[in-house]
Amino acid sequence: MCLSAIATAEDPYLFFEWNVTYGTIAPLGIPKQGILINGQFPGPKINCTSNNNIVINVFNHLDEPFLLTWAGIQQRKNSWQDGTPGTMCPILPGNNYTYRFQVKDQIGSYIYFPTTGLHRSAGGMGMLQVHSRDLIPVPFDNPADEYAVLVGDWYNKGHKTLKSILDSGRSIGRPDGIQINGQSNKVGDTSAKPLFTMEAGKTYRYRVCNVGMRLSVNFRIQGHTMKLVEMEGSHTVQNVYDSLDLHVGQCLSVLVTADQAPKDYYFVVSSRFHKKVLSSVAIIRYTNSNGLASLEIPPPPPENSVGIAWSINQFRSFRWNLTASAARPNPQGSYHYGKINITRTIKIINSRYLVDGKLRFGINGVSHEDKETPLKLAEYYGMADKVFTYDLVKDEPTNDNKVVLAPSVANATFRNYVEIIFENHEKTIQTWHLDGYSFFAVAIEPGRWSPEKRKNYNLLDAVSRHTIQVYPNSWAAVMTTLDNAGMWNLRSDMRERAYLGQQLYFSVLSPALSLRDEYNIPPTQELCGIVQGLPKTPLYS
């Protein structure tokens, strides 16, 4: 529920009140305990404009602690609101917490979801779309309408069952199917109701996000092409595609023109790089539709090594639209990121481990564990040494297969320009996400990375974004300026992997201890663990 919007001398405020409850949902036709926001799955859509201030009062009516993160919203100077267990105390059952943050200098399509337990497998997620301000020209005409499309794999087991499986040391295994906006339909099902409608001759914007737990997907629209216009907050060069791969945690926008015969058409989603292909369809109906959708659906892209090469080539076709006016994700406003000297290279290898017979995942020999006291709070109160040790995780992976289970926090120098290399030696695709920043996704290639591979980087118009996929036995490279002070989570977007340790935090502190660089702890911030009951003394001035 959006309570009101208030315009003052400041940027406008939007106020929301959300009630988080359990409710029965059945995206694949099998009922399970879902997590609803204001009775909805997917949750309410946040529709806002660049620089708006968002105020959301979240009431937790579950029987477990709950937290929401706003993936891709950079929370400038404000990791206090980032919604990860390393930055915030969870909202306890029967309590509420009010998030306050600004979508500063950002546009685009984002998702929010729970970071506690395996709640993401039960819902509690939705879309956050940030429009350009009226004075800023957008590089395409206003669409007739916009549609939020949340797709992804789905498990029929409940979130508590899935969590107990992981806690026992086993994998949650393969998902049961694919959902589209909380529904799943089969080709030829005449009882399916349309999810979207289009009027002949008009153009529509579809914002599509992969909110799944594990699987990459490909989506396509029967009989229609799609013009890519935005990806994770950046306007893109407007290439036209028959189908698009979308990896876990990723969002993009396409324009679709209703230029076909007036009838029904299928929006098709199918899994990628998975032994058993899972798929689902939704119906797009023309307003004067006079026919059912054809039973012949567009085929998926190839699989196996051919499919990986196809997907890498598609990634390489994504380019930043340098002529578009928009809020700039790059704080320096520089188009010349390729000419900035790299001050630090961090090479990350994801690994699977067995520790005392239990499954764990990690980064460079460290498998992250959350503690009762959020890392950011421990650091702010000068009690970090009682909760974690800095730099257990190194910039280079170790050659042995040993693993340390502990909170994983890497020190980072404020305003350093860093290169992060993700190398995947496993047989499954990976997706990574970095909170607090966007980065330039400059390369993905098969094989192993070496410094001479830098000559293959796109140093001109790589898309500025916050996720990157890494194919099996491949590597990816990204670059960013660490100019947002705070405690920021770098994690696998596969929830099983993140829950079992494939994540770390960057501690980015401004030596000036200035409000110019970071906000003080909010007076309403919940305290827990060893800092519970301490005064919220301002550190920065």
TrEMBL record:
EC number: 1.10.3.3
Domain of life of the native organism: Eukaryota
Protein's UniProt name: Multicopper oxidase
Enzyme class: oxidoreductase
Gene3D superfamilies per UniProt: Cupredoxins - blue copper proteins
SUPFAM superfamilies hit by this protein: Cupredoxins
Species: Handroanthus impetiginosus
CDD domains in UniProt: CuRO_2_AAO_like_1 (cd13872)
